[in-house]
Amino acid sequence: MEITILSASEVHRRKNANEPIDLLDVRTPLEYREVHAVDTELVPLDRLDPAAFKNRAPGRMLAVLCKSGGRAKQACEKLAAAGVPGLILVEGGTTAWVAAGLPVERGKKGMSLERQVRIAAGALTFTGVVLGWLVHPYFFGLSGFVGAGLMFAGITDSCAMGMLIAKMPWNQVKLDKPAQMCQTKPTNC
Asked: What pTM, to 2 d.p., does this model score?
C-alpha cells in the first residue's frame, strides 16, 4: 500500500473541502491531552491494531500524525503492511499543525515523553558512572548500555525506553473529553 506524505496545511485544506479524510493521532494520551488537532481520533502507537482499520468505509483516507512524524511513520508502515488503503503521513505532525495555526484543542500541560526519556537516560548514565567509580567498575556498563540504546533509538527512530515510559502510571491520563478510538468502532472511521 502506498503512503502519501502531505503537509498539515494541505490535509486541513482537503478536509475542509469535504474530502473524506479522518485524522488519527498515535501519540500518548498525555501528549494528546496537552494539544491535538480538532476532530482527531486517538489510538496510541503501542495500542495500534492495523486489522481494526481494514473495515473502514471505502474511499476514506486516513491522515496519521504524532508529535513530529516518527511514530506516525511507524504507524503508517504497520497499517500499509496490513493492507489499509488511503494512508496519509502528516509531515511534521502536531508540531507542524500548531505552527501552521490550524485548529487545535488544548488541555492540561504535562511533561513530554521526550523530556521524560532524556531525564531517565541521564539519570541511568549518571548512576552508572557514580556506581562504577564508587562501588565496582562493572557499573560503567550501565552507562554504556544506555548510550548504545540511545544510538539504536536514533538510528532506527524507535525508542524502547520511550515506549516503556509511556506505559508508566503517571502517563496514563483520563481525558477530559474521551477520544473516539477507531479501533473500538472501525465502521465509524
From this structure: 0.69
